Amino acid sequence: MGDAEVSHVWARRRLWRSLSLLVITCLLSLAVGWWAARATIEGSVGAAEGEDSALTEEIWAEATSGSVGRTLNLSTTVRQPTESIAQNRLSGIVREVNEGELENGEVIYLVDSTPVRLIESQEPFWRDLEPGVAGHDVLALQHFLQDEGLLASEPSGSYDADTEAAVQSWQEELGSTPTGVVQLGETVAVPESPVEVQVGEAIRVGAELSGGEESVFAPVGERRFVMVVQEAQAQQIPTEASIRVTYDDYEWDAVISSVEDGADQSTNVEYQLTAPNGGEVCLDDCHVLPAETQLTLRSQVAVVPEIEGIGVPTAAVRISSEGEPYVTTRHGDVPVEVLGSGQGVAIVEGLEGGTEVRVFDESRSTHTMPPEDNADGDEEVINEVPEPTGQSTEEGSPESGDQSDVQEEITD
Question: Which terminal residue of the chain has fewer beta carbons within 10 Å of its beta carbon, N or C?
Fold first, then answer.
């Protein structure tokens, strides 16, 4: 075989080899494309099936008894005007002055060697207290001496020998001459103590007194309970709102008696408060309040009155095409009346406690109950209904879920 024939044979072999490689490459490409297409189709079908499964998953919750409402946490100011409660009856040089909060029996000021003392009494002292006199002023003095452990006998209102001896002991404790007589001007009557006391301009250390000067001032006038709020908050407070005022362990109900504009041309609004039947808010407990010209107390305003009944998640309440609310139970749709709502819970009528209701995804539905409007301000939502977390179940296979109490305070 010549060189030409050999070259021809090798050329044919190379041609067949190239054609074989081309065919194999095409077959491989077809196989890979078929596999990718099948994987894509199966993945899409699987995702669609997963989405359909998620859509068919239901959440159920149990209707429970409870209450909802909305309150504003504010403050109430107690204003008590300062009035003159005594004139000076002594003459001499003022040697000592004590202003501020004073207890029963404490010295207000000292003229020469005679102290002027604070004594709790519902009536003013108007005469010398000495053996033989009787009256409410004597009774007030005796109660004080008894509280100090100086008078062993029961107060009678008559200035007897026991009272005289007790006064002498008291005067000795104060460094005064033990005369056994309390002269007019040595005691100043206040309804209660401790009390914030101020002295008149003439009562200053080193000043000389001749008698008749306005000497002692104290907040003994009628208390006014005032709630001052901003205009935006005032728009949320109905005039018939019920209010709870708190001081230490004491709580009092109050109502709005009148509404006034704030002082100094401010945008504030002032609500005058009284007890529900009139009078001071503190009623018979006013004695527990400090006798100050201005005192701040905590208060809670019921913006939306508390409503009790059967509670369900608001996402369980749907609106029909006729605009009527209803819930879906295990036995079908049940029409209800929404009495009130707050923080994701609706109080409804027409449903029994313990009934399971379906909770819908509000983001997917246009027929659920619209969300509650949140008021501005320092607000507390009363929600004593255990907010059902519901049961996440597959259709026809219910599972029990947990329930937790919800009470939230919103601070704007």
Answer: N
Amino acid identity of 43?
G
Cα distances (Å, whole numbers) of residue 28 to 17, 22, 41, 261: 17, 10, 20, 89
Domains held by the chain: number: 3
Boundary of a domain, candidates 172, 194, 219? 219
Q: Which of 219, 242, 266 is the last residue of a domain?
A: 219
CATH number at residue 128: 1.10.101.10
Average confidence (pLDDT) over 132-142: 96
Q: Do residue 105 and residue 171 come from a single domain?
A: yes
Q: Measured between alpha carbons, how far is 54 from 340 in angstroms, rounded to an integer?
A: 31
Q: Given a cut of 50, is residue 366 above it in pLDDT?
A: no
With tokens 């449903």, the residue in question is 351
Query: How many CB atoms sit inside 10 A of residue 293's CB?
Result: 15
Q: Is 174 exposed, middle or buried (0-12, 13-18, 19+ CB in 10 A)?
A: middle
**The two structure tokens encoding residue 395:** 């259709």
Q: Does residue 314 sit in helix, strand or coil?
A: helix
Q: Is residue 145 situated within a structural domain?
A: yes
| DSSP run (H or E) holding 154 | none
| CA 391/CA 313 separation, integer angstroms | 13
Which of 120-129, 153-162, 352-361, 384-393 has the lowest average pLDDT?
Answer: 384-393
> Which residues does 381 contact at the CB level (< 8 Å), separation at least 6?
68, 69, 70, 71, 342, 343, 407, 408, 409, 410
- What pLDDT digit, counting tens, does each position of 179-214 carry? 999 999 999 999 888 899 999 999 999 999 999 999
Average pLDDT over residues 367-384: 52
Q: Could you tell me whether strands 100-102 and 269-274 are parallel, antiparallel, or unpaired per DSSP bridges? A: unpaired
Burial annotation 210-233 (CB, 10 A radius, 16+ → b, else e): eeebebbbbbbeebbbebbbeeeb
> Does residue 341 share a domain with residue 248?
no
Helices (DSSP H) in 174-234: which residue ranges?
231-234
Beta strands in 92-155 (DSSP E): 92-97, 100-102, 107-111, 114-120
Phi-psi label, residue 337: left if phi above 0, alpha if psi -120 to 50, beta otherwise: beta
What confidence tier does 242 reach under pLDDT thresholds 50, 70, 90?
Answer: very high
Q: What is the largest CA-CA distance in the chain?
A: 168
Residue 165 CA to residue 154 CA, distance in Å, equals 14
At 19, is the secondary structure helix, strand, or coil? helix
pTM of the model: 0.58
